[in-house]
């Protein structure tokens, strides 16, 4: 008769507070920066919000500026990728189609990263991290303006409005969502993205 196998002892679970990883700390920091202002928020404020010691936070991040940098990258990285793809000359889509697509995508990115984008829109260039983020925003404006100009040369957009002004107005419409959009509100992301895109381009189409 074969004896029953003796089960191995269970591996003891690691002790500690659950949920306080780097991502959680970043989300909490962005919320605090938006509510109190980046300059007015200290690492002590963040520690109190999380119920941790400052030493515990420094186990995950070097300091407040690293959190700001990570938040601004979160706001900019996907949009930068979308704009880069839209401006590739090898695309078989027209400039108008690529412009329309990147505006819709920018709405989706904003809604998915609303807190980080809100923080991005409030930076004023008071540090190297903020200056770098503002430089990336200017690059996005430049790329979108060039795409507008290409679409106008194609005859797909009206050419009587300067491309840079169109770029600023398009991003202004998209960025205004941070003031009122709520993920648990009346409108789902797809409805909002469609509405912004349709309103923008029905008004810009050449007649």
Automatic annotation (TrEMBL):
Gene3D superfamilies: Homeodomain-like, Tetracycline Repressor, domain 2. Residues 42-61 bind DNA. Coiled coil: none annotated. It comes from the Bacteria. Keywords: DNA-binding, Transcription, Transcription regulation. Residues 19-79 form the HTH tetR-type domain. Pfam families: TetR_C_24, TetR_N. This is TetR/AcrR family transcriptional regulator. It comes from Kineosporia mesophila.
């Amino acid at each position: 008769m074969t004896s029953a196998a003796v089960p191995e002892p269970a591996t003891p679970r690691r002790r500690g507070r659950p949920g306080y990883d780097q991502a959680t700390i970043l989300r909490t920091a962005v919320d605090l920066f938006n509510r109190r202002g980046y300059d007015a928020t200290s690492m002590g404020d963040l520690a109190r919000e999380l119920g941790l010691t400052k030493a515990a936070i420094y186990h995950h991040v070097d300091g407040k500026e690293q959190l700001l940098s990570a938040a601004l990258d979160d706001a900019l990285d996907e949009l930068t990728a979308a704009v880069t793809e839209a401006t590739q000359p090898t695309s078989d889509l027209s400039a108008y189609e690529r412009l329309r697509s990147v505006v819709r995508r920018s709405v989706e990115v904003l809604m998915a990263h609303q807190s980080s984008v809100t923080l991005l829109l409030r930076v004023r260039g008071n540090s190297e991290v903020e200056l770098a983020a503002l430089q990336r925003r200017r690059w996005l404006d430049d790329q979108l303006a060039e795409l507008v100009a290409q679409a106008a040369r194609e005859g797909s957009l009206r050419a009587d409005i300067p491309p840079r002004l169109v770029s600023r107005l398009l991003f202004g419409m998209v960025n205004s969502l941070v003031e009122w959009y709520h993920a648990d509100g009346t409108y789902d992301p797809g409805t909002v993205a469609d509405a912004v895109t349709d309103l923008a381009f029905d008004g810009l189409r050449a007649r």
